Request: fold
Amino acid sequence: MSDGEAGTYLTAGDRLLFIGDSLTDAGRDRADRASLGDGYVSRIARALRAEAGAGPAPTVLNKGVNGHRVHDLESRWAADVIAERPTVVTVGIGINDTWRRYDQGLVSPVAEFEASLDRVLAHTGRESAARLVVITPFLLPATPDQERWYEDLNPRTEAALRAARAHGAQVVRADLLMARAAVEIGARALAPDGVHPSALGHDLLAEAWLTAARHAPAPRPEGS
Reply:
């Protein structure tokens, strides 16, 4: 973290839990609780460990599962999130809700997606004082067919933003971050198949999360 940023709001006592789909999973060994995969979560953990030096660093937990959609997260939220007693919960979900429409014909209505995301954020608010972070889904089309996905993904991204705002969650705009970076270095350098980040893509996501984490969270709305 750079010296010019506002003070960090993470401490050695924090438990940072990341939950989502393959972007979060990133090949982790689900039989090993300590496994963080090889994506943005592991990069965040290494950065925080380096910052801590010889002292204790925040605990980092990865609960991403490849292929999951928002209803899958909701079904395991109590066990994989609430029971872990995290102090910061980061959720990144949505691209599979769009993808399955086009490759399997499984429609995830945006209104239902938003309601499900709203419920898990509300559940966290009722059960804990954990900070909430929402990572928006992104797409860098690798084929002409993927260009069509925006008709489904754009309103889904707006739904994720509404749910985040309703619960005072900080937001990492992966959609904007990756699109801007693609202009400079090319989409394939960031996500060769349009969806899964390259090593460089994960680097950018980790840095964006760390930037958000060093700022104070917004006050949580009453009742959330």
The first strand starts at residue 15 and ends at 20. The two ends are 31 Å apart (CA to CA). The CA atoms of residues 47 and 53 lie 10 Å apart.
